[in-house]
Amino acid sequence: QVHLVQSGAEVRKPGASVKVSCKASGLTFSNDAIHWVRQAPGQSLEWMGWINDGNGQRKYSQKFQGRVTISRDTSAKIAYMELTSLRSEDTAVYYCARVGIRTEAFDYWGQGTLVTVSS
Amino acid sequence: QPVLTQPPSVSGAPGQTVTISCTGSSSNIGARYDVHWYQQLPGTAPKLLIYGDNNRPSGVPDRFSASKTGTSASLAITGLQADDEADYYCQSYDNRWSGVVFGGGTKVTVL
Question: How far apart are CA A110 and CA A96, in angstroms?
């Protein structure tokens, strides 16, 4: 049984940073591509970036380039997403998701982490 | 603005069929990248519904089907049920943005 369990809700002030974790179980992890997707209140899903298997290569959405860092601790099976220079528009639920090798789609998702940016 | 365009809402009576469109362009769906569909129930994470244009993961009823042609894709729900009320999102890859793109989402209401 595959599970992606994310860290709890966070509240930050504008200009601060936040780091969200995503702990995997039931999968190899070292061979899995982990993506981060966010969803602002009442809005659609928005892709932020991913870290791939093997050599840990990263790719980020142009929108978040320079503000987001995705990393992983392969031995602990944990992926991280850090977002800096937070603003109120970054208030959203942040999800980690795995891309399945067979489906090439997001077949497993974390439960989501609410990040609230407010002064 | 989402790269893929979906109608904000569709509705139907129990037992009816509803169809959700997902319109893209030559840099995503038209470039033959796979289209995937997700169902999101209120307050929960999205769930994979259709992958690779028209394939259902194990456990997804065959009431859900999808197709793709040109720069558009569509999801059909037949025999609509009350628990189909949810938001549905299409997703693909875009070579202009060099990344994953989603539709704006469609809320399905069962009348």
Answer: 5
Alpha-carbon distance of B102 to B5, in angstroms, equals 9
* Residue B8 DSSP code: S
Instruction: Count other C-beta atoms under 10 Å from residue A55's C-beta.
Output: 7
Segment B23-65, tens digit of pLDDT: 999 999 999 999 999 999 999 999 999 999 999 999 999 999 9
Q: Does the pLDDT of residue A70 top 80, yes or no?
A: yes
Cα(A106)–Cα(A81) distance, integer angstroms: 17
Answer yes or no: is pLDDT of B2 > 90.
Answer: yes
Query: Which residues numbered 26-55 in B keep a CB inside 8 Å of some CB on A?
Result: 34, 36, 38, 45-48, 51-52, 55
Contact A109 B47 (CB under 8 A): yes
Q: Is the pLDDT of residue A103 over 70?
A: yes
Interface of B with A in 77-106 (CB under 8 A): 89, 91, 97-105
CA dist A44 and A94 (Å) reads 12
What pLDDT does A53 receive?
A: 67
Q: Which of B77, B102, B82 is closest to B19 using CA atoms?
A: B77
Residue in chain B closest to A112 (alpha carbons) equals: B45
Six-digit token pair at B75?
């999801």
Residue A39 pLDDT grade (very low, low, confident, very high; cuts 50, 70, 90): very high
